[in-house]
Amino acid sequence: YRFQAVEAQDPYKNSLTDWKNVIEKAGNLRPEFILINSVNVMMKYPEFPTEKQFENELNLLGDYVKTLNVRKVHMMLTKSNTIEERTKKLLVQGARFLNRMNVMCLIEPLYLPGIPYYLRSYDEALNLVKELNEPNLKIMFDTYHCQRLHGNITYYIDLLKDHIGHVQISQVPLRDSPFNDGELNYDFILKKLSTVYDDYIGLEYYSDHTTDSFDWVKKYAE
């Protein structure tokens, strides 16, 4: 299987020089980099980063965005269990930085039991996007996180339809191939998503490392 587009959760494990060498070797076979995560400031700084510290991380992010020619970034933020004013300021700072590069800034509620994170609800994410009103600030809709946090997948697709900037899918509860046995019916979900979203869908799941787990892609790629 050869995918036309890829996501990179942590591109910073490789240097910019390494990435440039890989891209050069790939030539015309190079896939499009749709999405990368920002530098994970919640892991790097015990408390909130200062505006200057965050600016430095954004500059590093910008170098990777330009090298990989990325058009979407998932902005990873703080360990706080609530959305604080300083969190909002960082998000505005990040969104405006990316907007100058014509890049979408994404936020995503996460299901992380026992691990603090500022965004744990798609309702909160929607309110935050509306409040900050940055033109490139959108929501990443991940079916795994939505099902774990809320259920009601169809309701949230309809609720968020004007603000979805990227989609990722997997089965629940094991976060494996979408068409494995599980809680979610992807024949229905993918048809529903197609009414509100027309871009790449990220396959963020644990594969069984055989090509069989990608057989379903052929059907929906047509």
UniProtKB/TrEMBL annotation:
Enzyme Commission number(s) of this protein: 5.3.1.22
What does the UniProt keyword field contain? Isomerase, Pyruvate
UniProt family annotation:
Belongs to the hyi family.
Q: Which Pfam families match?
A: AP_endonuc_2 (PF01261)
Mind telling me what this protein is named? Putative hydroxypyruvate isomerase
- Identify the taxonomic lineage of the organism of origin: Eukaryota, Metazoa, Ecdysozoa, Arthropoda, Chelicerata
Q: Where is the active site?
A: E108 (proton donor/acceptor), E204 (proton donor/acceptor)
Q: Which organism is it from?
A: Euroglyphus maynei (Mayne's house dust mite)
Where on the tree of life does the source sit, at the highest rank? Answer: Eukaryota
Is Isomerase given among the entry's keywords? yes
Q: Name one GO molecular function term.
A: hydroxypyruvate isomerase activity
Q: Which reaction does it catalyse?
A: 3-hydroxypyruvate = 2-hydroxy-3-oxopropanoate
Q: What does the record list as GO biological process?
A: glyoxylate metabolic process
Domain Xylose isomerase-like TIM barrel spans what residues? 5-217
- Job of this protein: Catalyzes the reversible isomerization between hydroxypyruvate and 2-hydroxy-3-oxopropanoate (also termed tartronate semialdehyde).
The top EC class, named as a word, is isomerase
Keyword Isomerase present in the record's keywords: the answer is yes
Signal sequence residues = none
